[in-house]
Write a structure and sequence with these properties.
Pdz3 Domain; 756 residues
Length: 756
């Protein structure tokens, strides 16, 4: 029953309220021939009725039929002109700059200018908000708090917008409905933006309940006239500014929400900026432009909010919706532009017929915008607001070189999944690598499919040796490929199969044109070269790693030889020298030699590393302190840890920190060097930073750049980090010191490929 009420009765009830107010707006409200402010009595618009104008914009109504304005009923169910009928003569005392004058005003009844003004007004927005609320109600899932608040936001806004367009008439309690709706919008707007796109923190139900009660109390106070007539503006200002502040805070502090928030900010700009521009222009040229008409730009808001909430449920239609939302925003801008240019242009060119000018300008603007404006706007909206990467025509030139020069499977997979496939609007894909003739196929990327959707492992190599294949419409012949596959591109190097690229569903029509297939074949060729380069790079890295490990083993043997043989012989030599010769200086030289040998042993193989990385780093800090000779302060801030890792992992971690400390001591001219972080069961996080002269680190992770700039120590550290799947980040700039961070986890940092 509750679901039936929310899905059928609630939208029907709100729609009924809107239709009732719409009827009152067009048929029950008297056509006076002018508009006025219900609070001040100021005449705002005087319509052209084909007779000499007796009222002027800016006149203040002081009396109506002998009754002072302050004594006239202007609240809730009545207004000063509620009983006016066509043909009635109203005696209106008005005040202007020239003094007071009595006007005998004949009520014209229905007239085209006033009807047109009522037609092009904010009442249309009420139905737009109702559509957005109903679409949210029926389509958005899950039905959580955010869902409820967005439905309430749209429906409440629709009602008070419609009531506001009729409030001057006083019919159907429209002034009270307007003010009560605005007051209730205050907690709804803030509560929604606190939870949108995701909750900011704890639910804080008591706080929100208190805010709802306060808003309800002020709504009742407006009805009882306990507060000034215009108090509801405070609620409107609080709802709008509070929502913008919450969105701005989210944009500044939550990077993962910036795409959604950026789209909303753009929609707010489209919605509000035209009104501000027109308001300023009207004051400059004294034009009769209708601000209410320009407020139609607010139609951008409900569409943008619904899109941001609903886009995650679109699945394969998301890219289609991206194109639709950019066209939607452009249409709003074009409409608002026409509403601005037409009356302002007529104001700047006296004597020009506004109807003819409207037709001319509308046709001209639509033609220019359609030819030149929309493609640029669509590219801007898709790239900056909706996150669609580069268009397909730029894919080859931007990605081909990067693909063919990739040196890791994870890097190649990231380029394909995050840049190439979105740019081509491909929703399903699988990229497989056949590294060797006997090695199993490895899945590098899966997009929109699972491993069970792939051909059997025993058939993959046979299929990869076949030619490129494309499924065409109406082709009912048997196919060796799974039903989701629309195109299969073998990756070959020197005529030998190297891999396979399977492509499935694609927006907007699941059709691969010949131009797109040519582009995909070129990318496939680059991928084949990239996979071959990755294999060679991995082989070279394996050889390099084996060489480094061999060197470490040799260091251990050399350190053991120095300790067990050389130090013993030096000690024996000291015992063989008589005391007289020892006292003459030979003893000091012998002790110095022992110290140097021990220092060499520590450099080759830290003795405390037998007890773990923590003790080895303590010993390193002591060695650096001795080398610094009080010129540089060395500090070590590590919680004690007895955790042990694989000996080779510990060796590489230690060598990286050792090299960082040596670099800082020898080249940075630092006064302080700090080593801090933690060593835990799941991995390590170590930082070495100094206050030295620093260096330019535009591309600290590029090995070629490091070698070219003769940063051999950094290059070696990056190589060691790569060997153990660690991450090394270097942050430095001239005059600001250097900060090196080394992180490693037991699971490794790199993405793993899937073997079939």
């Amino acid at each position: 029953m509750a679901r039936r009420f929310s899905e059928l009765i609630l939208p029907t009830l709100v729609l009924g309220i809107l239709l009732l107010f719409t009827y009152a707006r067009f048929y029950s409200t008297a056509y006076l021939g002018f508009q006025y402010s219900g609070t001040t009595g100021e005449v705002r618009v005087v319509y052209d009725l084909g007779r000499p104008p007796q009222l002027q914009v800016g006149d203040l109504i002081r009396e109506l039929n002998g009754t002072p304005w302050e004594e006239l009923p202007r609240y809730h169910s009545s207004n000063p002109f509620s009983h006016a009928q066509p043909g009635d003569i109203l005696l209106i005392l008005v005040e202007s700059e020239g003094g007071q004058r009595m006007v005998e005003w004949e009520v014209p009844g229905f007239n085209s200018p006033e009807f047109a003004d009522r037609l092009i007004n904010t009442w249309v927005l009420s139905y737009i908000f109702w559509i957005a609320g109903t679409a949210t109600l029926l389509l958005v899932r899950p039905r959580d708090l955010r869902w409820s608040l967005l439905v309430a936001l749209n429906y409440v806004t629709a009602i008070w917008f419609m009531a506001g367009s009729t409030s001057n008439s006083g019919l159907l309690e429209s002034p009270f409905v307007l003010r009560a709706g605005v007051w209730m919008s205050l907690p709804i707007y803030l509560h929604f933006h606190y939870n949108f796109p995701r909750p900011m923190g704890k639910p804080r139900l008591r706080l929100w309940m208190f805010l709802y009660l306060v808003a309800a109390a002020f709504a009742v106070a407006q009805w009882l006239e306990w507060v000034p007539y215009s108090t509801y503006y405070v609620a409107l200002l609080g709802a709008v500014l509070g929502s913008l502040v919450l969105l701005a805070y989210r944009y500044a502090t939550r990077a993962q929400e910036r795409r959604e928030i950026g789209l909303l900010f753009f929609a707010v700009t489209v919605a509000l900026l035209p009104t501000l521009v027109v308001a300023f222009a009207v004051t400059q040229v004294n034009s009769s432009v209708s601000i209410s008409g320009i407020l139609l730009s607010l139609v951008a808001l409900p569409g943008a909010y619904f899109y941001v909430v609903y886009r995650r449920q679109l699945g394969g239609l998301e890219f289609r919706a991206n194109r639709l939302i950019s066209a939607y925003l452009f249409l709003v801008l074009l409409t608002v532009l026409g509403l601005i240019i037409i009356p302002l242009g007529a104001a700047f060119i006296p004597g020009l017929d506004e109807g003819a000018f409207s037709i001319l300008v509308t046709a001209l603007v639509a033609a220019i915008a359609g030819i030149f404006g929309f493609p640029a706007f669509q590219a801007f909206a898709e790239r900056r607001l909706l996150g669609i990467p580069r268009p397909p025509q730029h894919v080859l030139e931007n990605f081909a070189g990067r693909i063919s020069t990739s040196f890791s499977h994870s890097h190649l997979a990231r380029i394909v999944t995050e840049e190439v496939l979105p740019s081509l609007l491909v929703r399903q894909s699988a990229l497989l690598d056949f590294e060797g003739r006997a090695a199993p196929a490895r899945v590098l990327t899966l997009q929109g499919v699972t491993r069970t959707d792939l051909p059997a492992a025993k058939d993959l190599r046979t299929l990869s040796a076949s030619k490129a294949w494309v499924r065409r419409a109406g082709d009912n012949s048997s196919s060796p490929w799974p039903g989701w596959v629309q195109a299969a591109l073998p990756l070959t190097v020197g005529g030998e199969p190297r891999g396979l690229w399977l492509l499935g569903r694609k927006d907007p029509d699941d059709f691969y044109s010949q131009a797109e297939l040519n582009l995909l074949r070129s990318l496939a060729d680059q991928m084949a070269i990239g996979l071959a380069n990755i294999s060679q790079a991995q082989s070279l890295r394996a050889l390099h790693q084996a060489d480094v490990e061999r060197q470490e083993v040799e260091r251990v043997h050399l350190a053991r030889g120095l300790h067990d043989d050389v130090l013993r012989r030096i000690s024996d030599l000291g015992h063989q020298v008589d005391d007289a010769l020892y006292a003459k200086g030979f003893g000091k030289q012998l002790e110095g030699l022992v110290g140097q040998v021990r220092s060499l042993i520590n450099g080759l193989r830290p003795p405390l590393q037998d007890h773990g990385l923590y003790f080895a780093l303590q010993n390193l800090a002591d060695d650096l302190t001795q080398k610094a000779l009080e010129k540089t302060k060395i500090t070590l801030n590590l919680p004690r840890s007895d955790v042990r890792f694989d000996p080779m992992v510990e060796q590489h971690l230690y060598r990286i920190i050792q090299q960082a400390g040596e670099n800082a001591l020898q080249h940075a001219e630092a006064t302080q060097i700090s080593i801090h972080g933690h060593i835990a069961e799941d991995g390590v996080d170590l930082v070495v930073e100094d206050d030295g002269k620093g260096f330019q680190s535009n591309n600290p992770n590029g090995l070629a750049e490091l070698l070219a700039t003769r940063h051999f120590g950094l290059a070696g550290m990056h190589e060691r980090a790569a060997m153990i799947d660690a991450r090394l980040d270097v942050d430095s700039s001239p005059g600001n010191g250097t900060r090196l961070r080394l992180t490693w986890s037991q699971g490794g940092q790199k993405g793993k490929v899937i073997e079939l």
